[in-house]
Structure formats: C-alpha cells, structure tokens
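Working notes for the structural subgroup meeting. M.R. asked for a predicted model of this chain before we commit to crystallization trials. I am recording the input and output together here so anyone reviewing the notebook later can reproduce the run.

Input as submitted:
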Amino acid sequence: MSEPIDSIAEYCDRWCERCAFTDRCSAFAVQAAIAMCDGDVEAAIELAVGQPQPDDNSPKPVPPGQRWMDEALAHITEDEVDQARRDEQLRDERIDDTPLKTASIEYSVLAHRWLRDQEQALPAVSAPRSALEIIRWDNALIGAKLHRALSGFNLSQELRNDDPVENDWNGSAKLTLLLLGRTAAAWRVVIHHTDDADAKRLLEAAERLTSLLEAQFPNAMKFRRPGFDA
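Returned structure, recorded in token form:
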C-alpha cells in the first residue's frame, strides 16, 4: 500500500471500484481485509494496518490531548449527557424543518420511486444504463451527506470554533454538490434517450436542490478534499 492520505475517505463517494486512490486509502484497505478475514474486524485491521505494538506491561505515556479528554469526560454528569442528547434532538428537528432538508427528502423519495417503477422500461443501451448506475448510487448518499453538512453547520453556529472554509460541514457540502452535479448530468442522458417527463422533473429537482445548497454553503467549493483536491 502506498503512503495513506489522511481522511481521504471522509469526503469521497465511496465508489471504490471507480476510484484511483484505493491504494492510498486506509478505509478501503480495512474494507478489503474484512472480506478476506470473513468479517473478523480485529483481524482485518491487523492485516490492513499491521500488528499492534507488543505490550510489555510498562505504563505508556498518555498524550496531552488524550489526558485532557479523559479528565473532561470524568467530570461529565448524567444530566449533562441527557442535555446533550436533547440539544442534538432539537438540532435535528431544526434541520428537518429547513427548505434544504425538505427538498433533499423530496428528491430522494421521488428518485427512488422513479428508479423502482421506470428502470425496466428504459432502452437497453449502455448510456442510460450507466446513467442509472450513477443516479442510484448518488441517491443513496446525497441525503446523508447533506444532513451531515447541515448538522455540522448548525453545531458550528453554537460553538463558533470552525475555520470558515476548511471544516467538515463545508467538506460534506462540497461532496453533496459534486454528487448533485454528476446526478444532473446522468438525468440529462436519460432524458436524451427517453424524453421522459418525470425524469425532466427530477432533473429540475436536483438543480433546485443544488441552488439551495450553494446558497447555504457559499464557501463549500473552496474546501480542499484530501487527495482529490491536492
């Protein structure tokens, strides 16, 4: 395996079969090793990243950051944990009420129904089939990545400690925009071959979702994804 790229799997589409960076991705190495080890995760991690250092029973130095985290966690009360859960629930409810999240859910549901009902009726030619693969793959990711972007953004507004560009929510938003752009191109291929009215409406929905996302995350495309934007 070549030198791994830190965090490369955090902002990719997880379509490993089409990726040029699998030899530098620790997540892919572990995933492949899990298959080789019949699902034994511990053995797979050892196979992918090597054996752990031998334990000679001598005390190991605790990194300062870990020490601070351990001390902070030791003082957290059950009431504080419950409050954190309530805050997270309220945050999710606020996200669910936004036009962006509503548009995302509507698109994903309608695209799923279209694929279920119309796929078999499409011409059996390579271009639409390849486009369908993209639409199906991206539809499984768009909603999840968009929710991660919105959740991170909302939390950052409370904490106000993120870099304005290089942050997780911009990275997630950028990936979502890239997926939507690829999906829109795939819908245009389907429309070219079928002139399907519902496909046209889904293209419009994907483009509308893109516009909403760009307005919410104006700096998203400036984010540099590890490996991909080096």
